[in-house]
Structure formats: C-alpha cells, structure tokens
Amino acid sequence: MEKTFDHLGIAVRSINDTLPFYLNVLGARVVDRYSSETKGVEVHVAALEVGGMHVELLEPTNRESPVARFIRQRGQGVHHVAYRVENLDQAIEEAKTGGVRFYEETLRTNARGRRLIYMHLASTSGTIVELCDYPN
C-alpha cells in the first residue's frame, strides 16, 4: 500500500513560546489549534502549514503523558513522523505480515477525525512512526 508523508510531530514545552519561530522565521500559518485530554495523549496541538508541509506542535498537558515523558528523556524536538495511507486497517495488517509490531493501545481516532496508530520502536530503528488515514 502506498504511503505518503502526512506530518511531523514536534514535542515542545510551550506552543506559545515556540510559535513565533514557526510563524516569523519559517512563515508558517496556523491551520488549527485543539486539545486532546484522551488518556495516554494529553496534549495541546497547534497544526501548522509550512511551505506545503504539515507540522504539529505538541505540548503536554499532563506530566505523565507520552509527550511529557519524551521531552524528559530526549528533550524538545521531532517526536514522530506520520505517513498517510488510504486504509489504516489494511496498512496495519500488511505491515504485521511483514513483521512490524505496533503499540496497539495507540490505535484511535483523534479530535479531528484522523485515525492513527504508532509503530513499535523495535520495528522502526528507534523512530516513532505514525500511520494514519482520514476516513471522513
């Protein structure tokens, strides 16, 4: 199944402190802002468009959220790379057939209707990779 780049997720301590760089230096525009308090997510999101590419700034809202843990362990920066697929369920099955493992508990639909799941780090050489689709 074809996979295309969808977005980069960037872990930040503060969206408000980080936004000026993206807006003033990179010329980004804010496409959307929202929060997710779903257990295991707990982030504020600023969705940006930069030169035709999408970036999501991710600010943790809970000290124990995955993004907060990521920042404590690795610092601010690229959290994940997301690839869009036509059919997420089919893409997961194809990847599993090829031996790819997933963090099954991450399978969900976000606040904006994107279905997503994260691949296990052992299958991706240490990079957090998201597969996603937009069924609606």
From TrEMBL:
Transmembrane segments: none annotated. Residues 4-134 form the VOC domain. It comes from the Bacteria. Keywords: Metal-binding. The keyword Kinase does not apply. The keyword Metal-binding applies. PANTHER family: METHYLMALONYL-COA EPIMERASE, METHYLMALONYL-COA EPIMERASE, MITOCHONDRIAL. Belongs to the methylmalonyl-CoA epimerase family. This is VOC family protein. It comes from Alicyclobacillus fastidiosus.
